[in-house]
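In this supplementary section we document a worked example of the pipeline. Step one takes a protein sequence of length 368 as its only input; no multiple sequence alignment statistics are reported here. Step two produces a three-dimensional model, which step three serialises into structure tokens for compact storage. The input and output of this example are shown verbatim.
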Amino acid sequence: MTNMTVDLPLFAATTSPSTARSSEAMAMPERVMLYPELRYMGSKKRLLPWIHGVLSTLDFETALDPFSGTGSVGYLMKAMGRRVVASDFLNFSHVVARATIENNDTRLDDSTVDDLIHGGGDGRRFIQDTFSGVFYTADDLRFLDRLSCNIRLLPNPHAQSLAFAALFRSCLKRQPRGVFTVSGDLSKYDDGRRDLRLSLEDHFREQVSVYNDAVFDNGRKNISYNSDVFDIDVKNIDLVYLDPPYVPRSDDNCYVKRYHFLEGLSAYWEDMPIKQATKVKKIEKKYTPFSYRRTAITAFDDMFSKFSQSQIVLSYSSNGYPGLEDLVSMMGKYKKRVEVFQRQHRYHFGNHAQAVRSSVLEYLIVGR
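The serialised model returned by step three reads:
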């Protein structure tokens, strides 16, 4: 890990590897690496020890994570004993954070799980009718219709969220590439993995146990919201951890395109109309200014301005737009001191033999 200290307005870098190594070596709570990470674009799971090392050098009691994604960094800060406010503009990400960050004590017992699996549901068959021949087997689709209905009948919102989180992870494990962009015959992706042999019901039972183990009480009142970063109104936050989507050099950064099925499932597609002409039955893409070159720079500047009263930790990669110098300059308008921590990182998209692997420099840009 390399640390670059920037005392604005100068852009002078110094490297302190010994400080970086000692920072990363600080003990991270063991439970963090057991967090049930989703297979998710841009996942920070393997970077958590490094992120923890940087966060451990900062003085904060309350933290906001407004791009919570899979919840792993918010969960890290919860395990560090901080009060965490998590938020995401995707509903399924909000549900996961409510299950693992907001939830301090609710677990699903065996009797409840049996009732969820074997309950009669309400007879609706939207998933069966819509996704037949697109994703999963007929039995799996019937199971999803029945189970998602039974989950929504649970009176405890944390129990609902925990069950949905287990179901989301089950769906991703059962999907060969871990994304929902390919339909039809997926046998060509069958490489013998156990995950592709198990039914969704078998996966769900296993994942409930995994998520039950993730539940713990850090003695703080944590909370999760379903909100856009510019709409969330949280005051008196010591630190804001920002991991927004960024404009990549190739392809796109559309999470809805890749995870539309989970987003729809989280609300049984209520107010999420299907685009019937698409092969994989997508829902409408949600707009974010971070996805376009013409709006990204203004979006970053507005975001830094919004959180100017808090310490800012921006997670970013060298393959994104805008570039590092622009980001440091923008953050410097609102912060007296900006530090850039960087390390080499290799992202893995998919787990098949031909998976694309992208090596980048990962940054943590800290403003205070």
